[in-house]
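Subject: sequence -> structure tokens, single chain

Hey, anyone have a minute? Need the predicted structure for the following. Not urgent.
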Amino acid sequence: MTEHSNALPRRIVFQGLGALGTAVALAGCGGGGDDGEDAPSPDAGAELASTADVPVGGGLILADERIVLTQPTEGEFKAFSAICTHQHCEVTEVDRTINCPCHHSKFSIEDGSVESGPAPSPLEPVAIEVRGGTIVAT
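Reply:
Had a minute. Here:
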């Protein structure tokens, strides 16, 4: 027997390293799911904005809270996560739709549903209520 007879064949070692590399790559690319890391969760009772700041037929992006407030029709207010469901970019514009700059997904200001992709799912709703002229997290 030679000195190397107890060693693993080189082919098996490289196959194992290749499988390990594939597993690591797949774990790092698991980006389709929502792990909650980007989900906004303002404190209940936190004042988010004045109702007068949210235009009818449009919305207001609260970058610090990662929330989009919308007013689809006069007096009806909605709130959604400002994190796009495609690759977790923050939306940057509300003009009849909530728009993501990264890959041009567009979401409904009424219910956060996808109006055009590549986003795979709607924006996550955020619980709010209107108290007088103030929008408050609940």
